[in-house]
Amino acid sequence: MKEIVYTQVYRIISAITAVSFFLPVIILLVKRMWKHREFTWFACYWLIGGIINLIDILGLADTIGGSWINRAYNLFEAPFMLTVLYFTSQNKTIRKALIRVFVIFMTAELLTTFITRLHAITEIVMVGLGTLIILTFIIWEIISYLVKIEHSHFEKVMQFVYAGLIFEYGISIITFIFSYIYPPPPNKDYTDNYILYDISIIITIALASWGFISYGEKQKKPPQKPPARKRNKDEEFMFI
Fold first, then answer.
1. Alpha helices (H) along 21-63
2. pLDDT of 142 over the 70 cut
3. Is position 178 within any domain?
4. Residue 40 belongs to what domain range?
5. d(CA 124, CA 179)
6. How many domains is the chain partitioned into structurally?
7. CA-to-CA distance for 221 and 155, rounded, in angstroms?
8. Is residue 128 part of a domain?
């Protein structure tokens, strides 16, 4: 009975996760915010993740084509996220560091993939390293925000996105450890890891979506006119 309930809960969470991936794009389209480059980059990142997730849900991951698509996504997720962070960061120092790390990491991935012919161990190492690098840059972004005294509304909104991402990639580190370094015993599957990852995605996108919506509502408000200045008696006497 418990296994049946557990399976049903997992299916519900998986369905919510599948829908969540597309929520940021829907918000941008409905709110007509696609002109905001920073939000569009993150929405595209989750959109691609949603498409890959659909491949798993539809059972296409077990096919040769689906398997290669999944492996390619695992390898190029980190470089793509580095690109997203570069085009969305407001910190020049972080942007310069992102360029250098992107070139080094991408070169290392291409060389190791070519030399090892995309060996499974190579894929695991590059995925783990990429996740750790992304998490480091997200923490750096949050710290650079915290040291500032004044913040624009856009910077406040971006903190919802970064807060979600730090949660997502933090959980990814945990699921990576218990999937590859300390995998479950042969008589158990990876369902617990999948549920933990799905929950992290739901929370991440919920935070980012709230930030998108709050920014859109702020943009709709018309600028308030300053109140009319009242003349005092001395000014009226001088005017006369």
1. 23-30, 37-57
2. yes
3. yes
4. 2-218
5. 10
6. 1
7. 18
8. yes
